[in-house]
Structures are given as structure tokens and as C-alpha cells.
Design brief:
Length: 361
């Protein structure tokens, strides 16, 4: 993951920057009231010269700036309202090293100076590890990122394991139940590392606002929008296997490194680690509507959005040459299953959670 994964670079037609205003921006718009509330309800004000804010899994594109703008203006207003001098804002943009940080910095510089009331720096690395100095951060934001794992659980690609996920690329209602358990075990390890690293970096009373894809039920295999649409991506790859374009072994050794946690699982992991308290939690339901498009356009649009996110992984594993064929077939399958896809999109859930760093005494 750390070496390969990145959203599509630049600001061209296939970039994440051009293909994140539909699905991911919708999440940000829906999460905005919770983010604002997370800052407004924050009792602690730090009387410091510099307030350090990190955006984890920031990627590169207009969404990143949109979020920075909300956070800095909310915190600024809060300080002004309390009659406290507004500190300087240091924004630390984190993502994996292959991310196009340069495109992000260019975008930042293109914004009018009046909208840039902050200083920025890029911090490459995995948020599953330490990224920042001890007790240096006051506020952390992370959107559409924390459902990504550090790796695929190895058992599910082991032919001799009960968890072998043959012919599929993610947890499925039709696959072995053990697959979901293996993914959850990986999530527990990763999220625990995430919390332990942040516990060192966030000052007492500091907050994190995290929004990420989730699962509404306890059943790990029940289809969600992501698992249903990723199953279709698996079918697209399978079709190319049947045509002899991709080897079967390549499909069997590919799985997506993500997990959609349920609210109960999340609460239990936070509680177990113990450094943070959940002070707010909202379940955001539904995704963007595709009503204005016809069925074929919907398939193409969705496939393009998915490609901006997954191309690096697909291309690394299957080779650049088959990427077009996979995503073209995926668009057709998405359209063929449009009724179910739209139904799952309406029911899609995200968790928007605010965590506060406990006193370490
Ligand atoms: N926050 C942006 C981008 C979300 S895309 C938005 O809401 O639009 C998800 C991002 O998470 C990607 O850029 C991906 O590279 C990043 N990501 C995934 N795993 C990560 C990890 N372990 N450490 C840091 N970033 C990660």
C-alpha cells in the first residue's frame, strides 16, 4: 500500500482532483455540520502562537482546500468570539508518498491570498505510523480515508486457508464468512496503530474529526454500496479471465485493502485503546444522486470515479495494459446492475466521529 497506492495525480481528465467532486465531495458537504459542531462544542482553547492542524489522507484536489477553509474559519471565529487572539494556523497535509503533493501545493498557491490565512507543509507517510512530533497537534481532520487498510490480510490470499477469497476481490455475501473476520482482524491492528500514534501526537484536549465509509449492520458480509460495487469490479476482472486476457491466478491474488467498520466495532476499538473519548458521532446516510444521467452515462461516470481511486492498485497488480479493459467492462456491469447499485448508494453509510484526547494523568 505504502509504496503503490495513490489517487490519480495531476488535474487532468482521469485525476482524483477532477473525479472527486461527485462522491467524496458529497460526503464532505454532508459531514460539514458535524465538523463545524465538532469545533464549536470544543471547550478547550489553546493560548498558543501556532495552532497545528493535520489533514490525514488529504490527497490532492479542491476537496482538500474546501476542508481547510471550513476548519480555519470555524476555529478563527471561535477564538474571535471568545476574545482570544487568533493563532497562526499551520496546516500539515499528510498522505502516502506517491500522492501528487505538488499538484496540491500549486492549487493552494492559486487560491486568493485572502483565503489563505494559514501556512502549509506536506507530510508523506502512512497514518498507521507516527508522522508528527510528540504533543504537537491540536486538531486532526481525515475524510474518506480511514477505511483503507495498511495491507490485505494475507490469509485471504492463501490457497490453504479457510479464508481464501478465490475469484473475489472483497468481502461478499456469497464468499466465505472467515474473509470478513480476517479483514476485521487487520482493521483492529491498523486502527489500534493509528490511535496509538495519534495519542502521542495530539495534545491533551486536542480533537480529531474523522469521516469514513462504514457498515450499518453487525453482519460483516451483508452487502453495502462499496462491497456490492467492488464485487462488480471483481466480475469485470473475471470476464477478462474468461477471455484469456488476465490469468486466473492474478485475480485470485488480488483483494482490496479496505474495511468498513460498524459503529459498535468502532466504539469498542476506541474504548479498548483508551487514549481518546468519543464526544460526537453521526451516521451519514446516502450518496450523491445520479438522476440527471442515463443508465450508460451512470456506468461510465461511476467507473471513472472508481478508476481515479483504484487505478494505482489495479495497474500495479494486473499491468497497465488491461486497465482500460477492466474499467470499460466495469462501466457495463455497473449499468446492467443499475437498480441495485442506486439502491445501495441511497443506503450507503459513513461515520463522522469526533474524538478528544484524554488527559494522560
Ligand atoms: N481527504 C480527501 C481524499 C480522500 S481519498 C477527500 O475527502 O476527498 C483517500 C486518501 O487516503 C488517498 O489519497 C489515499 O492515498 C489516502 N490514504 C490511504 N491510506 C493511507 C495511509 N495509510 N496513510 C495516509 N494516507 C492514506
Amino acid at each position: 500500500m505504502e509504496k503503490v497506492f495513490s489517487m490519480n495525480a495531476g488535474d487532468g481528465d482521469s485525476s482524483y482532483a477532477q473525479n472527486s467532486s461527485f462522491l467524496q465531495k458529497n460526503v464532505l458537504l454532508k459531514a460539514k455540520p458535524s465538523l463545524e459542531e465538532s469545533i464549536r462544542s470544543w471547550e478547550t482553547t489553546f493560548e498558543c502562537d501556532t495552532l497545528c492542524i493535520a489533514d490525514l489522507g488529504c490527497s490532492s484536489g479542491p476537496n482538500t482546500l474546501f476542508v481547510t477553509q471550513i476548519i480555519t474559519s470555524e476555529i478563527g471565529e471561535k477564538y474571535a468570539h471568545k476574545g482570544i487572539r487568533v493563532p497562526e494556523f499551520q496546516i500539515l497535509y499528510n498522505d502516502l508518498p506517491s500522492t501528487d503533493f505538488n499538484a496540491l501545493f500549486k492549487l493552494l498557491l492559486a487560491a486568493p491570498p485572502a483565503e489563505r490565512s494559514y501556512l502549509v507543509a506536506g507530510v508523506p507517510g502512512s497514518f498507521h505510523n507516527r508522522l508528527f512530533p510528540s504533543r504537537s497537534l491540536h486538531f486532526i481532520h481525515s475524510s474518506n480515508s480511514l477505511h483503507w487498510l495498511s495491507r490485505v490480510p494475507p490469509e485471504i490470499e492463501d490457497k490453504n486457508s479457510k479464508c481464501w477469497n478465490k475469484g473475489r476481490i472483497f468481502i461478499s455475501e456469497k464468499g466465505p464468512p472467515e474473509v470478513g473476520d480476517a479483514y476485521f482482524a487487520q482493521y483492529q491492528k491498523d486502527f489500534n496503530m493509528f490511535l496509538r500514534a495519534r495519542a502521542k501526537e495530539v495534545v491533551e484536549g486536542g480533537r480529531m474529526f474523522l469521516v469514513f465509509g462504514s457498515r450499518p449492520s453487525a453482519d460483516k458480509r451483508q452487502y453495502t454500496w462499496a462491497s456490492f460495487s467492488w464485487e462488480d469490479l471483481g466480475f469485470a476482472i473475471k470476464d477478462l479471465v474468461s477471455q484469456g486476457i488476465i490469468e486466473e491466478e492474478r485475480l485470485d491474488s488480488f483483494n482490496l485493502p479496505a474495511y468498513q467498520v460498524s459503529e459498535d466495532e468502532l466504539r469498542s476499538e476506541v474504548h479498548k485503546e483508551g487514549s481518546f473519548t468519543i464526544v460526537g458521532l453521526e451516521i451519514i446516510i446516502g450518496s450523491s444522486s445520479m438522476d440527471k444521467y442515463d443508465d450508460n452515462e451512470k456506468g461510465k461516470l461511476f467507473s471513472k470515479q472508481m478508476r481515479a481511486v483504484l487505478e494505482s492498485l489495479i495497474s500495479y497488480h494486473f499491468g497497465e495494459k488491461v486497465v482500460d479493459a477492466i474499467f470499460n467492462r466495469y462501466a457495463e456491469i455497473f449499468t446492467a446492475n443499475i437498480i441495485q447499485n442506486e439502491e445501495y448508494m441511497k443506503q450507503a453509510t459513513r461515520i463522522a466521529v469526533t474524538l478528544e484526547r484524554n488527559d494522560s494523568t
